[in-house]
Design the sequence.
């Protein structure tokens, strides 16, 4: 699956690790949300549970698995960037 930088997707949490969340796109492609990029984790709440659906943005499409963020600030930054480039 093509997961371009700054694009938004809905993903499903498939594992909770000490360093973050392993997630899966609809086609089975895997991604990682570092614990500092998960709203629940940074607010002091429990991290998102396995099976949770999260809206994320691609913040690093060159790594495997791709790195994602579920933070509203990163989603807004990506939206502004896409708007400037017509995407």
Sequence:
């Amino acid at each position: 699956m093509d997961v371009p930088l700054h694009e938004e997707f809905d993903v499903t949490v498939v594992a909770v690790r000490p360093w973050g969340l392993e997630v899966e796109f609809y086609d089975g492609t895997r991604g990682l949300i570092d614990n500092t990029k998960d709203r629940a984790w940074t607010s002091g709440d429990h991290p998102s549970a396995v099976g949770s659906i999260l809206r994320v943005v691609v913040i690093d499409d060159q790594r495997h698995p791709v790195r994602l963020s579920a933070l509203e600030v990163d989603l807004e930054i990506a939206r502004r960037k896409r708007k400037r480039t017509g995407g």
Observations:
- The two ends are 18 Å apart (CA to CA).
- The helical segments are 39-42, 72-85.
- Strands lie at 8-17, 20-24, 30-34, 53-60, 66-69.
